[in-house]
Specification:
Number of domains: 2
Distance between the termini: 53 Å
Number of helices: 20
Oligomer: single chain
Shape: flat
Number of strands: 2
Helix content: over 70%
Order of helices and strands: EEHHHHHHHHHHHHHHHHHHHH
Strand content: under 5%
Radius of gyration: 29 Å
Length: 475
């Protein structure tokens, strides 16, 4: 499946901006400013945004003073429905879903899969990590649907541009519904709607004050509003819901009208010099070659002089994974800074050598982790480290392909590799098999001690079957 389409900003399929019903603010022949008019799809977007915001706020109705961090960062089925509902509403408004490019469909599918993770897992740590992956997917997918094009959205700077576009889009049109109401046919109707909204807002602030000043008025209001003491909290809830409605509408409006930031200039960056990159890559290759020889000495020689295999297994795997990530960044910089230059055979050899030596680092980290887990058991962080090493191995293959073939879409394929690894891990309900692995190891004697408290904290619901079996076998 190709994840490429046009790289230039375009209006989204299914929405003709040139013939849009929406009229931007303009001036008539006398110089009077004419308020903008919203088209039928824009009003429908406002209605759908209101529905999503109300549904979201209902779940937070009991916590009006502050939004729970667990709800926003980790979420559950509510977060799943919110994300899927937003993109479903956006696609329904755009129309002509069949005309979406294969890249846009792939991004939507990845976002939907990430949105399923908090609904299928009770592990709060996993949900927290998934929030960052889901957030990145939402930003890039929204950017592509705005008309930026999948190739541009998944470019080297696409992630930063998508974040900037999202921040701009959710604030750019929050005032449009109010300005459009003023421009509705018939000044009386428009003025009446504005007056009703203004009167309702003022009343919410004034009624509690009057009730506190006069007992008779308070008794009268209490018959109409039995929960008068909860009116201040209701005001906060309504204000929060109204803000979410406007933010969601602004996002949908920007996507419907294909609004993206101006395209980058056509200036070509000067390639990095071969000598400078050669020195950096060559020195790293020499360093990692020496390290690889040291690993061979550990694995096939006498490890007792350096603390034995227990000490070898106990230290270093997280550091090695971090070094592998640094190497990937270094390779990405080297390739990006030479994108406008002729291929250098020397640099290609040095880059491929660095790829191979980084693979040795990853293998060493995996070996250390396996020895450590076999002795002390699995945790979520250790399991995620395994997933990270698989992702790094896949990214190394992608980088090697990019070195050998200059037109290879490395960013798009790299994004796909990371998403596939993460979704495979997250949707497999890792808390279940982590608990099962530790219980099996403890009962078979390969793991000396088992941390039951950790397994309970990891996810009481998902680890319960393994813990029940442990209790039955070792009461």
């Amino acid at each position: 499946m190709s994840m490429q389409d046009e790289g230039r900003p375009v209006a989204p399929r299914g929405y003709d901006c040139a013939s849009s019903e929406t009229k931007t603010t303009s001036a008539d022949d006398k110089g009077t400013v004419v308020p903008p008019r919203m088209g039928r799809r824009d009003w429908a977007a406002l209605g759908l945004a209101a529905g999503l915001a109300v549904a979201w706020c209902v779940r937070l109705w009991q916590d009006y003073s502050e939004v729970s961090a667990a709800m926003w960062l980790m979420g559950g089925a509510d977060l799943t429905l919110l994300v899927m509902g937003f993109f479903a509403a956006l696609l329904a408004l755009r129309g002509r879903v069949r005309e979406l490019s294969r890249g846009q469909v792939a991004l939507l599918a990845a976002t939907a899969a990430c949105a399923l993770v908090p609904a299928l897992n009770r592990c709060e740590e996993l949900r927290a990590f998934n929030a960052f992956v889901l957030g990145a997917c939402c930003l890039v997918t929204f950017y592509a649907l705005c008309g930026a094009g999948v190739r541009r959205a998944l470019g080297v700077t696409g992630w930063l541009r998508s974040a900037g576009n999202f921040a701009r889009a959710q604030l750019a049109h929050v005032g449009l519904p109010f300005r459009a109401v003023r421009g509705l046919p018939g000044s009386t109707l428009g003025s009446a709607l504005v007056g009703i909204l203004a009167a309702a807002g003022v009343s919410l602030a004034v009624v509690p004050l009057l009730a506190s000043a006069d007992v008779a008025f308070a008794n009268l209001v209490s018959r109409v509003l039995p929960a008068l003491d909860q009116l201040p909290s209701t005001i906060i809830r309504v204000a929060r819901c109204a803000l979410l409605i406007l933010l969601a509408f602004s996002l949908m409006y920007s996507a419907l009208h294909g609004e993206v930031e101006p395209a980058a200039s056509g200036a070509v960056a000067k390639p990095a010099p071969v000598v400078a990159l050669g020195i950096v890559l060559g020195s790293m290759d020499a360093l990692y070659a020496a390290f690889a020889l040291l690993q061979v000495g550990y694995l096939f020689g006498d490890a007792s002089a350096n603390g034995g295999y227990a000490e070898y297994a106990r230290t270093g795997f997280f550091q090695l994974v971090a070094v592998a990530v640094i190497n990937l960044v270094l390779l990405a910089i080297a390739l990006h800074t030479r994108r406008n230059a002729n291929r250098s055979l020397v640099l290609s050899v040095l880059e491929l050598t660095l790829v191979g030596l980084t693979a040795v680092l990853v293998a060493s980290a995996a070996w250390r982790m396996t020895l450590y887990v076999g002795e002390y058991g699995l945790t979520l962080l250790r399991a995620m480290t395994y997933g990270g090493m698989v992702a790094i191995a896949g990214l190394l293959v992608v980088v090697a392909a990019r070195i050998l073939r200059e037109d290879f879409p490395a960013v798009a394929w790299g994004t796909g590799v990371v998403l596939v690894v993460w979704l495979t891990f997250a949707l497999s309900r890792p808390a279940v098999w982590i608990a099962q692995y530790n219980v099996d190891g403890y009962l078979s004697g390969t793991i000396e001690r088992i941390d039951v408290d950790y397994l309970v904290d990891l996810s009481p619901v998902e680890t319960r079957p393994a813990l029940v079996w442990l209790t039955a076998e070792r009461p």
